[in-house]
């Protein structure tokens, strides 16, 4: 038997805000009956983007029902922006903790919340973008992006962690190597980023030769593939290089990025900064739609 | 624990029969001698040990010399399969088993497949019955051993053991049967059987945990799995777990007496409960063949809700059952048995196994019938799914 906290049992046996919310104007559905758990979250949002009421319907185990119930309690009275700050860990903590194997229930709560709010705002749900990325776990249809996002957000270090949080790898186990690759990739990047902060004093900085046009384009493409795309993927977005004319780099945003209100901010601060650092300081990045 | 306990999880483990407790107690608090010792104090214990062997042999209809005691059903399965293969001469490197085996066999087969054996897994149909044509084709002159469970632990579905054994014998193939769920519920007679090796476990038939046994047909060669002393005629080393062996002996004697009751009274209670549920609770279905089944087991799918949630809610009412759902087991996929049977996705996650024993009373069945509808209704009210809103997949 699972060692559930009293809070989990309380919310399971006496769930709060259970059932359909008739006048809901934001609804998010995550999961499916095939996968073994699903959560339909109903929100009633007022004109000031404040959540007046919330309810849920859940197909799933004790901790899935408890997580759903707790989530509805947590979001009530919050603005949408405030609600989006709730992480899956917050849900688990509010329940007095969940067994590690059950953390995916809290992730489902967080995802349903995101889905409901994005739908309400008329934004593309990042799931769509996730569908476009590579499916790693075929048993549960979990994409690389979802795994990557959970590895970063929940600081996951092992394949078992990933199984507990996303269910990926919990079936036939044939994807464990691929999951390990994603984990290694995420934390290798972090390590190399840290290493860059403290350059070894023995390194002698050589002044790079100016790049010719072909070299420049190739370097830009490489930087986008290796540095920029993986970072955007974490938020369910992606980016495509359209053209390079002189020092102007034209890019197109995809996935969650394409509908993100802060996309121009992303372009200027993040993409341009990285390209200027890695390729040439004169580069200017513009977005084409 | 003063809580009300309605125990219908007897395929997981059983209550130790009071008669079994009384039989084993003297060997805990008085006769602690080692049966291998030369003195009278050990010799006395050795005599009781052999009596227990006779009791087990009587239930299986075999000679006492064909019984070896082990520590559990898993050890019996491991030893029977690996030990007999190691002693086999010739170059047969093919094994045949089924897709619905208990992990004790399933994972042993997976281990052997890494050691150079080719393993064929025979599938089952929607009712859990083995694909006999596939099985006939799979067993060839290259096959070393066939291992098939007598009765499935999750659904109770019974395999046509003698029919399979006949095919195995025709092709000179060793035949192992995991009978952990069957012993005590199905009458067995090894003298008339095609079985070469059979595994059983004490705690499934009202003996304590920590004791199992193996039947090894005379003439079947075995390499010991536990290496050490001469105990069990060199077939299983380690000082005998005397109190447990006395207990499994007593339990087998009781089982032989009660096997009729298992197939009449226990079956009648099971059927009453099952029929009531299927008739009165909508969107339910039976998992497994209605007739070719253990008399005590009922596996029912409750659509649109999840098994762990059902178990927790039942447990609050004192009802102890089990589930093939993913969440209750700690794995993320529902039971391999139900998946192999292609149980529809609407009910596979909400499949509950009720397994009765001769200690299950009519009042307890009434209590389950009284509480269950409310439990199912409550969870269905929480679920976003119902028969009305299922997307067509």
Report what the structure shows.
The complex is a heterodimer of chains A (289) and B (393). Chain A is an alpha+beta fold. Chain A folds into 3 domains: 6-122, Alpha-Beta Complex (Sufe protein. Chain: A); 128-197, Arc Repressor Mutant, subunit A; 213-287, Fe-S cluster assembly (FSCA) (GMP Synthetase, Chain A, domain 3), CATH 3.30.300.130. Chain A contains 11 helices and 8 strands. In chain A, α7 crosses α9. The N and C termini of chain A lie far apart (54 Å). Residues 199-206 of chain A have low confidence and may be disordered. In chain B, the strands form 3 sheets. In chain B, strands 2-8-7-6-5-3-4 form a 7-stranded mixed sheet, sandwiched between helices. Chain B is globular. The model of chain B has no long low-confidence stretch (mean pLDDT 95). In chain B, α7 (161-170) links the parallel β5 and β6 (174-178). Chain B has 2 domains: 6-12 and 258-382, Aspartate Aminotransferase, domain 1 (Alpha-Beta Complex), CATH 3.90.1150; 18-255, Aspartate Aminotransferase, domain 2 (3-Layer(aba) Sandwich).
The side-by-side strand order for the widest beta sheet of chain B comes to: 2-8-7-6-5-3-4
Q: Between the first and last Cα atoms of chain B, what is the distance in angstroms?
A: 46 Å
**Into how many domains do the coordinates of chain A divide?**
3
Helix content of chain A: 40-55%
The CATH superfamily of the largest domain in chain B is Type I PLP-dependent aspartate aminotransferase-like (Major domain)
Largest sheet of chain A: 3 strands, antiparallel
